[in-house]
Amino acid sequence: LDSxxxxxxxxxxxxxxxxxxxxxxxxxxxxxxxxxxxxxxPEQHGxxxxxxxxxxxxxxxxxxxxxxxxAATEGMDTDDIAYVLRSLxxxxxxxxxxxxxxxxxxxxxxxxxxxxxxxxxIMNTDTITLRxxxxxxxxxxxxxxxxxxxxxxxxxxxxxxxxLLLGDIPLSTLLTVSPNVNVREVMDGNAETIHVSMDENxxxxxxxxxxxISAPVVDEQGKLLGRITIDDVVDIIRENAEHSMMGxxxxxxxxxxxxxxxxxxxxxxxxxxxxxxxxxVAASISNMFESTLEQLATLAILMTIVPSMGxxxxxxxxxxxxxxxxxGHIGEGNSRWLIGKEAAIGMLNGIIWATxxxxxxxxxxxxxxxxxxxxxxxxxxxxxxxLAGVTIPLLMKKFKIDPALAGGxxxxxxxxxxxxxxxxxxATLVLA
Amino acid sequence: LDSxxxxxxxxxxxxxxxxxxxxxxxxxxxxxxxxxxxxxxPEQHGxxxxxxxxxxxxxxxxxxxxxxxxAATEGMDTDDIAYVLRSLxxxxxxxxxxxxxxxxxxxxxxxxxxxxxxxxxIMNTDTITLRxxxxxxxxxxxxxxxxxxxxxxxxxxxxxxxxLLLGDIPLSTLLTVSPNVNVREVMDGNAETIHVSMDENxxxxxxxxxxxISAPVVDEQGKLLGRITIDDVVDIIRENAEHSMMGxxxxxxxxxxxxxxxxxxxxxxxxxxxxxxxxxVAASISNMFESTLEQLATLAILMTIVPSMGxxxxxxxxxxxxxxxxxGHIGEGNSRWLIGKEAAIGMLNGIIWATxxxxxxxxxxxxxxxxxxxxxxxxxxxxxxxLAGVTIPLLMKKFKIDPALAGGxxxxxxxxxxxxxxxxxxATLVLA
Lengths: 432, 432
Fold this sequence. Notes:
The structure is a homodimer.
Chain A: H1 6-15, H2 18-26, H3 30-39, H4 45-51, H5 54-61, H6 66-72, H7 78-86, H8 90-99, H9 102-113, H10 119-122, E1 129-130, H11 136-146, E2 155-159, E3 165-170, H12 171-176, H13 183-186, E4 194-195, H14 200-210, E5 214-218, E6 224-229, H15 230-248, H16 261-288, H17 290-295, H18 297-302, H19 305-327, H20 332-365, H21 368-398, H22 403-431
Parallel strand pairs in A: 1-2, 4-5
Antiparallel strand pairs in A: 2-3, 5-6
């Protein structure tokens, strides 16, 4: 591909489905990305854009003039256009909106008016609505006249003259009931609805739990505003999961794998700065025990073991709790039980690893006092690590701090400080 | 709920949808779980079971006799029955199979014959098939006679007399085309298929990329075997994501948040044992420099900073690479580019943090030699951390070791050892 066979590559790109082109772009270093984008089929630009990860999309958008972008959005779902426009600078986005034709523009502006991360921002407005008092036969004839249905349509919605949602009819029902009955008789009048301001994570949880393919979105009055489809929900589930995983390592989940060096370095700086502070706090703990460390260099050799074990044990608990919070397993009712359980595991772990480390150190250094000191510190730190691993994320949740982002750093600082303090503190007491 | 209002709770449980009952069970400590299970509606047992996480399900299955379980599986999807049966001990599972009626039993045995984690193990066999030469009108009449369609049916499959898949017809097409045309004229003959032995992760990636709701599963000859639906794929996506997140903390993604203390402690032991070995390796590095540490206790105070920064920087890179591998962004073609990029970020980070720490230490300890020593060690360790963060997961992938599980521990060991070695080594050289 590097050898300048542009014509060949262009033909290949034009034949690939847009989702595969998007994957190829995401897998390319920035320089290659520009070349590839120029070779893609302009007809597919819209579909490729909506599949790209935010960071990569921003890069590609810089290569496009507002008119080209407005042309590319034709035929895209409203929510996907809104997603693309949201990442543009204000001036450019106004320009793109001006280039779009009246009706599209109106729909996109409506979509952009809903706050990001709510049901409103991920819904499509291309619903097919029916009246309750027509017969199925009429519906079938209407659909044949209408032609193609919007993507991922698995149900039609029944509304009254004020657009209030009365129920829904799955396509499979339309195909299996007698054509002579009325819509009202076969519709599902208890269809669950999603409120337009619901958080997108709650929407995803509902979809996952109920195995939905699409669901209607309504306002306070129960008026039908649009529908949410499973493909957007799958993206949310994937993003959330990546957020937990990347967040625990201090990374942004939007980060492009092939971002330029300087940009990546800037992004990672904050977390490294926080960690430097945490490491300096731990160092200042050891500093309090300088005279003890001067007395016995072996302490310096052993002093990293207890914080390390506490960090791992605490992080195990932390991961469990972060997942539990994300999935919705942990609430007011059972958090006390969970704290008790993890504290008990911490103590049991403490007993086990205190015994092991006491034996190892006594055999290695031939000094059972050292064994006793490190065992005591291990027990204290492991017990506290279990407790901290569950209380830190729960407290953060209460104060609306994201535990997936800040939990690991806070926890490691606690276990490092407690580990050093208990080990060096006990050593000072025993040696004095 | 604790106060013995069983009748009330039973009524509530019977009115809840099975997925909510499952969430409630998962959110309850083991003791409460047993009581709740006894109060659930036996008619819903099958549907509740299939929604439960593996660990919780195993606990519940122990409360059920084989006959009850066989009865509960009636009406469940084949793949869900197989999922439940797979977690039973061999003897019990034979007994359950014997209790099932002939046809169901045959279908479940066929599903169980496919290896776990392949397309075969998650597919349903309840497809509706059509012949190519009938008219749409005949199809519509057939569907009305048949009544209800299987769940999440969005397309019917067209096969020849040997069950070879010829194409598919979305329900929306059935509703919008003229009833007089033949199936052959409106079917999509290029429908993409899934091979029965494809890995379930690849299946999930295809669904996600193409926004599918269901897809046909075929064997080598192209014979239709069944179909995979989006609800099972969503579970796989969620599980994979949890696997990366929990794995990085050394936890099993099946772990039940409310598992008993002893069981949880056992599960976490392995990872803590591995970490103890890693910590002892790091300690033995410091041990090599015992005489230097005896000379200057300040070294002991500062020696934890460099490994800590290297660990964080390396883990940032690691998380990025693990996600890239999972999403399919990283392959043979671009891994060299990525190694170069992350090595460059590592060196840039090294220059930044070496400068910062040199200033901090010189000001704190009033000794610029110490500043120079720690700056040198910081640069070496940060550069290596970037390189290790990308090469370790790539190598593990090559040797078929799961980087999400073992990557973090391997990386931290490398950064700890290199951090201590470079800092104490340089100190020894300078002080000598």
